Amino acid sequence: VRLKIEAALLASKLPDTPPNLREKSASIEGLLDQALGTTQRVARQLRPGILNEFGLAEAIECQAEDFAHSTGVACRAQCDEGVEPDAETSLALFRIVQEALTNVAKHAHASLAVVRLRREQGSIALEIRDNGRGISEADMNKPKSFGLRGIRERIHSLAGEFEISAVEQGGTHILLRVPEKRIAEPNATEEDLQRNLF
Protein backbone atom coordinates (compact mmCIF):
# COMPACT_ATOMS: atom_id res chain seq x y z
CA VAL A 1 0.00 0.00 0.00
CA ARG A 2 2.86 2.37 0.84
CA LEU A 3 4.39 1.87 -2.63
CA LYS A 4 1.01 2.64 -4.21
CA ILE A 5 0.71 5.83 -2.17
CA GLU A 6 4.22 6.91 -3.11
CA ALA A 7 3.64 6.12 -6.80
CA ALA A 8 0.43 8.20 -6.68
CA LEU A 9 2.33 11.08 -5.07
CA LEU A 10 5.04 10.87 -7.71
CA ALA A 11 2.43 10.87 -10.49
CA SER A 12 0.72 13.93 -8.99
CA LYS A 13 4.02 15.83 -9.13
CA LEU A 14 4.58 15.10 -12.83
CA PRO A 15 1.76 17.07 -14.51
CA ASP A 16 4.06 19.04 -16.82
CA THR A 17 6.63 16.36 -17.56
CA PRO A 18 7.11 14.72 -20.95
CA PRO A 19 4.46 12.15 -21.96
CA ASN A 20 6.89 9.23 -21.72
CA LEU A 21 7.44 9.92 -18.00
CA ARG A 22 3.70 10.08 -17.36
CA GLU A 23 3.27 6.80 -19.25
CA LYS A 24 6.05 5.19 -17.20
CA SER A 25 4.41 6.40 -14.00
CA ALA A 26 1.06 4.94 -15.11
CA SER A 27 2.81 1.66 -15.96
CA ILE A 28 4.38 1.52 -12.49
CA GLU A 29 0.99 2.11 -10.87
CA GLY A 30 -0.49 -0.67 -13.02
CA LEU A 31 2.23 -3.10 -11.93
CA LEU A 32 1.67 -2.13 -8.30
CA ASP A 33 -2.06 -2.77 -8.72
CA GLN A 34 -1.28 -6.26 -10.03
CA ALA A 35 1.14 -6.92 -7.17
CA LEU A 36 -1.43 -5.69 -4.64
CA GLY A 37 -4.06 -7.95 -6.16
CA THR A 38 -1.80 -10.97 -5.84
CA THR A 39 -0.87 -10.10 -2.28
CA GLN A 40 -4.50 -9.54 -1.34
CA ARG A 41 -5.51 -12.91 -2.76
CA VAL A 42 -2.87 -14.63 -0.66
CA ALA A 43 -3.65 -12.67 2.53
CA ARG A 44 -7.39 -12.17 2.05
CA GLN A 45 -8.48 -14.29 4.99
CA LEU A 46 -5.86 -12.93 7.38
CA ARG A 47 -6.45 -10.11 9.80
CA PRO A 48 -3.68 -7.54 10.05
CA GLY A 49 -1.38 -8.65 12.88
CA ILE A 50 -1.61 -5.35 14.70
CA LEU A 51 -5.39 -5.79 15.08
CA ASN A 52 -4.85 -9.15 16.78
CA GLU A 53 -2.07 -7.86 18.99
CA PHE A 54 -3.26 -4.41 20.03
CA GLY A 55 -6.80 -3.75 18.80
CA LEU A 56 -8.44 -1.29 16.43
CA ALA A 57 -7.44 2.01 18.08
CA GLU A 58 -3.74 1.11 18.14
CA ALA A 59 -3.92 -0.18 14.56
CA ILE A 60 -5.45 3.13 13.38
CA GLU A 61 -2.82 5.14 15.27
CA CYS A 62 0.00 3.10 13.69
CA GLN A 63 -1.59 3.49 10.25
CA ALA A 64 -1.73 7.27 10.73
CA GLU A 65 1.95 7.35 11.72
CA ASP A 66 2.96 5.20 8.75
CA PHE A 67 0.90 7.38 6.41
CA ALA A 68 2.50 10.59 7.68
CA HIS A 69 5.98 9.10 7.43
CA SER A 70 5.52 7.75 3.90
CA THR A 71 3.65 10.73 2.39
CA GLY A 72 4.80 13.80 4.29
CA VAL A 73 1.12 14.63 4.94
CA ALA A 74 0.53 15.23 8.65
CA CYS A 75 -1.97 12.71 10.01
CA ARG A 76 -3.53 12.68 13.48
CA ALA A 77 -5.49 9.79 14.95
CA GLN A 78 -7.90 10.50 17.79
CA CYS A 79 -9.33 7.27 19.19
CA ASP A 80 -11.53 7.11 22.28
CA GLU A 81 -10.52 4.55 24.88
CA GLY A 82 -12.44 1.30 25.03
CA VAL A 83 -13.80 1.34 21.47
CA GLU A 84 -13.20 -2.30 20.55
CA PRO A 85 -15.80 -3.69 18.16
CA ASP A 86 -16.07 -7.33 17.12
CA ALA A 87 -13.39 -8.78 14.84
CA GLU A 88 -15.35 -8.35 11.59
CA THR A 89 -16.19 -4.72 12.33
CA SER A 90 -12.61 -3.95 13.41
CA LEU A 91 -11.21 -5.36 10.18
CA ALA A 92 -13.72 -3.47 8.02
CA LEU A 93 -13.07 -0.15 9.79
CA PHE A 94 -9.31 -0.63 9.56
CA ARG A 95 -9.54 -1.33 5.81
CA ILE A 96 -11.72 1.77 5.36
CA VAL A 97 -9.10 3.91 7.10
CA GLN A 98 -6.44 2.48 4.78
CA GLU A 99 -8.52 3.18 1.68
CA ALA A 100 -9.51 6.68 2.79
CA LEU A 101 -5.90 7.65 3.53
CA THR A 102 -4.77 6.23 0.19
CA ASN A 103 -7.36 8.48 -1.44
CA VAL A 104 -6.06 11.49 0.52
CA ALA A 105 -2.54 10.83 -0.76
CA LYS A 106 -3.66 10.21 -4.32
CA HIS A 107 -6.32 12.86 -4.87
CA ALA A 108 -6.65 15.45 -2.10
CA HIS A 109 -3.44 17.52 -2.33
CA ALA A 110 -3.82 17.91 1.44
CA SER A 111 -1.32 18.87 4.13
CA LEU A 112 -3.32 17.35 7.00
CA ALA A 113 -5.59 14.35 7.57
CA VAL A 114 -7.41 13.50 10.79
CA VAL A 115 -8.92 10.12 11.72
CA ARG A 116 -11.38 10.04 14.63
CA LEU A 117 -12.84 6.88 16.22
CA ARG A 118 -15.48 7.22 18.93
CA ARG A 119 -18.53 5.59 20.51
CA GLU A 120 -21.94 7.23 20.00
CA GLN A 121 -25.07 5.91 21.76
CA GLY A 122 -25.00 2.29 20.64
CA SER A 123 -22.88 2.86 17.55
CA ILE A 124 -19.26 3.34 16.58
CA ALA A 125 -18.43 6.43 14.55
CA LEU A 126 -15.40 6.80 12.30
CA GLU A 127 -14.49 10.13 10.69
CA ILE A 128 -11.75 10.88 8.21
CA ARG A 129 -11.14 14.52 7.25
CA ASP A 130 -8.52 16.28 5.19
CA ASN A 131 -7.79 19.89 4.28
CA GLY A 132 -7.24 19.27 0.57
CA ARG A 133 -9.12 20.25 -2.56
CA GLY A 134 -12.36 18.50 -1.58
CA ILE A 135 -14.30 15.84 -3.42
CA SER A 136 -16.58 17.00 -6.23
CA GLU A 137 -20.16 15.92 -6.82
CA ALA A 138 -19.04 14.25 -10.05
CA ASP A 139 -16.37 12.25 -8.21
CA MET A 140 -18.87 11.11 -5.59
CA ASN A 141 -21.20 9.79 -8.27
CA LYS A 142 -18.66 7.80 -10.28
CA PRO A 143 -19.35 4.09 -9.66
CA LYS A 144 -15.76 3.17 -8.78
CA SER A 145 -14.46 6.61 -7.92
CA PHE A 146 -11.89 6.96 -5.13
CA GLY A 147 -12.55 3.47 -3.79
CA LEU A 148 -15.94 4.66 -2.53
CA ARG A 149 -17.69 1.58 -3.82
CA GLY A 150 -15.57 -0.68 -1.61
CA ILE A 151 -16.12 1.56 1.40
CA ARG A 152 -19.88 1.63 0.82
CA GLU A 153 -20.01 -2.16 0.49
CA ARG A 154 -18.08 -2.62 3.72
CA ILE A 155 -20.45 -0.28 5.56
CA HIS A 156 -23.50 -1.96 4.04
CA SER A 157 -22.22 -5.36 5.18
CA LEU A 158 -22.12 -3.96 8.73
CA ALA A 159 -25.64 -2.44 8.51
CA GLY A 160 -24.05 0.98 8.90
CA GLU A 161 -24.43 4.49 7.50
CA PHE A 162 -21.98 6.35 5.28
CA GLU A 163 -21.70 10.03 4.35
CA ILE A 164 -19.10 11.85 2.30
CA SER A 165 -19.00 15.55 1.56
CA ALA A 166 -16.75 18.40 0.55
CA VAL A 167 -15.94 20.75 3.42
CA GLU A 168 -16.78 24.40 2.74
CA GLN A 169 -13.37 25.61 3.95
CA GLY A 170 -11.65 22.97 1.80
CA GLY A 171 -11.16 19.25 2.09
CA THR A 172 -13.25 16.12 2.29
CA HIS A 173 -15.19 14.72 5.25
CA ILE A 174 -16.12 11.04 5.54
CA LEU A 175 -18.41 10.00 8.38
CA LEU A 176 -19.65 6.50 8.98
CA ARG A 177 -21.49 4.81 11.80
CA VAL A 178 -21.91 1.12 12.47
CA PRO A 179 -23.98 -0.53 15.19
CA GLU A 180 -21.92 -1.59 18.17
CA LYS A 181 -24.01 -4.74 18.56
CA ARG A 182 -25.14 -6.09 15.22
CA ILE A 183 -27.75 -8.72 14.45
CA ALA A 184 -26.10 -11.48 12.44
CA GLU A 185 -27.04 -11.36 8.78
CA PRO A 186 -25.52 -12.51 5.48
CA ASN A 187 -22.50 -10.31 4.84
CA ALA A 188 -20.32 -9.64 1.86
CA THR A 189 -17.15 -11.69 2.18
CA GLU A 190 -13.72 -10.14 2.55
CA GLU A 191 -13.10 -11.36 -1.01
CA ASP A 192 -16.13 -9.41 -2.29
CA LEU A 193 -15.01 -6.27 -0.50
CA GLN A 194 -11.33 -6.53 -1.43
CA ARG A 195 -12.27 -6.74 -5.10
CA ASN A 196 -13.26 -3.06 -5.03
CA LEU A 197 -10.30 -1.69 -3.08
CA PHE A 198 -7.13 -0.11 -4.39
Outline the structure in words:
Residues 183-187 have low confidence and may be disordered. Helices cover 51% and strands 19% of the residues. The longest helix has 25 residues, at 19-43. The chain has one domain: Histidine kinase-like ATPase, C-terminal domain (Heat Shock Protein 90, 2-Layer Sandwich), CATH 3.30.565. With 198 residues, the chain is α+β, with helices and mostly antiparallel strands. Helix 1 (2-12) runs parallel beside helix 4 and helix 1 (2-12) packs parallel to helix 5. A 5-stranded mixed beta sheet has the order 1-2-3-5-4. The protein contains 8 helices and 5 strands, in the order ααααβαββααββα. The radius of gyration is 17 Å and the shape is globular.
Strand order, largest beta sheet: 1-2-3-5-4
Helix content: 40-55%
User: Are there runs of 5+ residues with pLDDT below 50, and where?
Assistant: 183-187
Cα separation of the termini: 8 Å
The name of the CATH topology is Heat Shock Protein 90
Q: State mean pLDDT (0 to 100 scale).
A: 82
Q: Structural class, from helix and strand content?
A: alpha+beta
- The beta-strand count equals 5
Characterize the quaternary organization of these chains.
single chain
CATH superfamily: Histidine kinase-like ATPase, C-terminal domain
Q: Roughly what fraction of the amino acids lie in strands?
A: 15-25%
